[in-house]
Design a protein that fits this description.
Blueprint (H helix, E strand, L loop, with lengths): L1 E7 L21 H13 L7 E4 L3 H12 L7 E3 L16 E2 L8 H6 L3 E2 L11 H15 L4 H6 L2 E7 L1 H12 L19 E7 L13 E9 L17 H9 L10
Parallel strand pairs: 1-6, 2-3, 2-6, 4-5
Antiparallel strand pairs: 1-7, 7-8
Length: 257
Amino acid sequence: MLTVTFIRHGESEDNVKGIWAGWKDAPLSELGRRQAEALGEHLATTKFDVVYASPLLRAHATGIAVQQRQPHNPPLIVNPNLREQHFGIAEGHEWVIGLPKGMSEEDAYKQGLFASTVEKFPEGESMNDLLDRARIAIQEVVFPHLVEAAKGDVHIAVASHGHCIAMLMEALLSTDTTFKHDVEYFGLANTAWTRAIVDVHPSYTATDSPQLSVKVTLLNQHEHLKNVKRPTTAPTEDSTRKEAMAYFGGGSAALED
């Protein structure tokens, strides 16, 4: 049996600015570092055989926080296909929920307006593009463990990003022939984790086409955040920033003030 724990990164310095981040490589904020430390402590007694991480600072640092609290020091492997959706020319610009009535996307770009209603920004990825990349990531970080999981228990952690995790979940679940696309896996809080169990037939070999049984057992787990305090110097969250953080996969509803 293979267990996969998907972990969203801690709050980044860009999260609190309410801007399009994507591949823009901002580090964790002070709160994000506290969240990652709390997560590492929370998962310290959960044995991971391998920790995979996006190379982007916010997810990589979160993966390290988990790895370093593991007593047996599992390897941490960086995979670029675990990066967040690329938002092209919008990256670094302010996130807005929608455009003024009658304004075209082209005119909006000229004015520095980049709305969440746009399916794909120039030079960026659509959600379908991200799903294609997520399928490759599953082949690279999950499939190599199937032979071992057919014989015994294997547990991997995957530190990534809100949109990417949603597509990773869909890509993994689609390996199950009984999969029905009736649940969305967006909305993860910072450092929240979601777990899937992959059953592999004992006779499986590396030359087989994977036909797996995949079940999601835990979703958006963030109880480790209940005692994480927001730094007194942290920026105040206005409604736009809260909407932006929700869009990118989380928010801070699980945190105490």
